[in-house]
Amino acid sequence: MALLDMVKDEYDVHVAHINYHKRRTANRDERIVRDYCHKHDIPFHKKDYKDDKSSGNFQDKARVFRYLFFAECIREYGLECVLVAHHRDDLIETYLLQKKRKGDVSYYGLKRNVVIKDVRVSRPLLKYTKKDLLDYCHKNGIGYGIDESNLSDLYTRNRIRHELVEKMSDDDKRILIREINEKNRVQKEAIRKAKAYLQKRKKMPVREFLDYDDKVRLLRIFLDINISSKEAEELIRQIREADSFETLIKDKYLVKEYSYLEVFPKEEDYVYRLDDIRCFKDRHFRLARKGGRKEGVYVTEEDLPLTVRNYREGDAISMRYGTKKIRRFFIDSKISSRERKTWPVMCNSEGNVILVPGIGCDRHHYREKYNLYMLKL
């Protein structure tokens, strides 16, 4: 409420309120906000949370619900960002909670500007204490409600608040803020060094990676995914010990092959069904009337419909000298894992592979002159 009163005359604001119906005073809180918005002619948007009783932490589910609603309001009314009223005591609580959990964090405390669930969020009150904001409300006659659940010690954050933060002096808090700022300064510098080292490379020599001091941080930045230390250490072990490996992490592949590490995004499989012989272009291949000897095939009516798709593990092609595993061709030709996943193959109506660019056509479709070519792009 203090935040709303501070910004109402500075910005064109809308208010988004969610009633979780978890407390007897929930309707009172909604009324306080609604009445204030009505008095000051501020657009008020409200949504009721209905718990689906599914498994999962209520706080996590509520947070997802909340930010989806915020995103909906931003889209519908052409707004720029969400202002939230986290203050300096919240920042300190978050930092102490991070220390208690002993986990890795990308930032200590709370950032002023972040993106949450694709929503830009700003915290303009981080320089104020909770007492500052209560004093502001009392001085300016701003109504507010106390969330009784914050008085309970059921949650770890509440215990930190009551047992530590509320007992700190202003000097104690200033010392802790300096500690937080220093940790973030050191973290920022380490990230800058790791990014400069990578220089946006998608490939990195394994030996260089293993020689780097802060491998966990380097791996996170290389992946651009905030994995845990435990996950990072296991990946580093595989990088050190395995001759080669490939793993999917969220929507990216991490691959070790030919003494290099590479990161690339997972792409969707593609399949084209062709009822006639025709030429067209995809981002991974092109069907044409001309091409090289290892790109051509002679197709008959019996082969239709043709299927052009990306390579699948286990694919093989029947050559004049015997059946050849396409994987073997990739290995012999040192085709990277990234290229293999989108490498095109052509199958006939029976599902047999009849053409692979780089290998050629199978023995049943070999001619001196071909009528269709498939070029790998």
Can you offer a commentary on this structure?
The structure is a single chain. The chain has 377 residues and is α+β, with helices and mostly antiparallel strands. The chain has three domains: 2-167, HUPs (Rossmann fold); 199-265, no CATH class; 271-376, no CATH class. It is 38% helix and 21% strand. It has helices at 2-7, 26-39, 58-77, 88-101, 130-140, 156-163, 170-198, 206-211, 215-223, 229-241, 326-332, 337-342; strands spanning 15-19, 44-48, 82-83, 113-116, 119-122, 203-205, 245-249, 252-257, 260-265, 271-274, 285-288, 296-297, 306-310, 316-319, 322-325, 344-347, 353-356, 360-361, 372-376. The strands form six sheets. The protein has a five-stranded antiparallel sheet with strand order 10-13-16-17-18. The longest helix has 29 residues, at 170-198.
CATH architecture term of the largest domain: 3-Layer(aba) Sandwich
Separation, N- and C-terminal Cα atoms:
58 Å
| Strand portion | 15-25%
Q: Which overall shape is indicated by the principal axes computed on the Cα atoms?
A: elongated
- Determine the mean pLDDT: 93
Radius of gyration: 30 Å
Please summarize the sheet with the most strands.
5 strands, antiparallel
Q: For the record, what CATH class of the largest domain applies?
A: Alpha Beta
The count of helical stretches stands at: 12
Number of DSSP strands?
A: 19
